[in-house]
Amino acid sequence: MAPVKVSKICCIGAGYVGGPTCAVIALKCPHITVTIVDLNQARIDAWNSPDFNVPIYEPGLVDVIRQARGRNLFFSTDVDKAVREADLIFVSVNTPTKKSGVGAGFGADLHYVESATRRIAAVATSNKIVVEKSTVPCRTAESMRTILEANSKPGIRFDILSNPEFLAEGTAISDLFAPDRVLIGSLQTSEGKDACKALADVYANWVPKERILTRISSVNALSAICEATGANIDEVAHAVGFDSRIGPKFLRASVGFGGSCFQKDILNLVVEMNEYQKSRFSKTVVDTLFNTITGKHIAVLGFAFKADTGDTRESAAISIIRDFLSEHLQEACPNTPLESIKKSVTIVHSALEACKQKEAIVIATEWKEFQSIDWELVYGQMAKPAFVFDGRMILDAEKLRKIGFTVKVIGRGDRV
């Protein structure tokens, strides 16, 4: 069978991965019709907004949408129509961490992936290449294959590919324009290789061919997992080494590292230290503000989890605000929903406005714009004494102190 020449792509999921990824594919491949679908009408309306007020903040994204939308890039809630017409389907739905049951707190909730896969099987009327694009555990593509094959109509074949994303929010568009590498995994059958080539040909419209790596069974760097899943550890190490954030060093599989401390440090630090750091910062704020924040007003600058993104998932600011609300209510509220937090705080879009008549400023996100704030003007409109708690070590503490601020920088052992 000759490789499929892709002329129509459907992406199920108009979120942080599917939206930018397929928008760039549409921009770079004007001969391919790309339709991004989602059941959330409000989200699709935002992607289609006349003023390009798209639902995701990502530098460069609006310019991509302006060039491609209406030409060969479309956003729709008609999932069935897009699936039926597509040659290739990206499944790029949300895979949140499980909140209850087995694996709660660390396992991925794959019910959106399963739902999308079952929808494809139910409505497809021709052969499809289905690409797993969400952040999912190993073997998810195999589970998708099982669902599709068990529910497909006679005479219809599904080829399943794994095409993991390696975008960093805030630089997603530049990452997509010039990726370190593109990974495409498939079964090592002639049909699987043909499907691999079809997707590789899409990326080859702008990605150098030497950076498109195919026929990789898994992207786990642990040899034990590679053995269990049939992956080649050397291929995996080679592929991982292409990522400029990692590099090719320390990727040789071995019997494992020795010593009693290293493994304990890793296991303890991965989660516990991260949570401890946030709670320690909150406690520092409260302790410094004379051991109470009751009746005080605090400006938290930065609600997203990092600069140049609108994504608030697992944001440190949310944990900090929860701690502040707990202090104010004099009871613990570690599970306060995000919507409840938003109702408990005033959200503004100007640092100057946020700091007006506040006793303290908390820096929770490393926005470059902080460097251009007129801190003397901010100081002048704050209650005194005026405190700054820099949780990202991005401000000139000495300059702020000269203005009159009391400054506490996390990680530097500052005395106030």
From TrEMBL:
GO CC, sorted alphabetically, is:
nucleus
| Annotated substrate binding sites | 166-169, 250-254, 258, 306
Positions with a binding annotation for NAD(+): 38, 43, 95, 135, 169, 264, 313
Catalytic activity of the protein: UDP-alpha-D-glucose + 2 NAD(+) + H2O = UDP-alpha-D-glucuronate + 2 NADH + 3 H(+)
Q: Name one Pfam family in it.
A: UDPG_MGDP_dh_N
Q: What InterPro entries does UniProt report for this protein, alphabetically? A: 6-PGluconate_DH-like_C_sf, NAD(P)-bd_dom_sf, UDP-Glc/GDP-Man, UDP-Glc/GDP-Man_DH_C, UDP-Glc/GDP-Man_DH_C_sf, UDP-Glc/GDP-Man_DH_dimer, UDP-Glc/GDP-Man_DH_N, UDPglc_DH_bac
Domain of life according to the entry: Eukaryota
By what name is this protein known? UDP-glucose 6-dehydrogenase
Which gene underlies this protein? UGD1
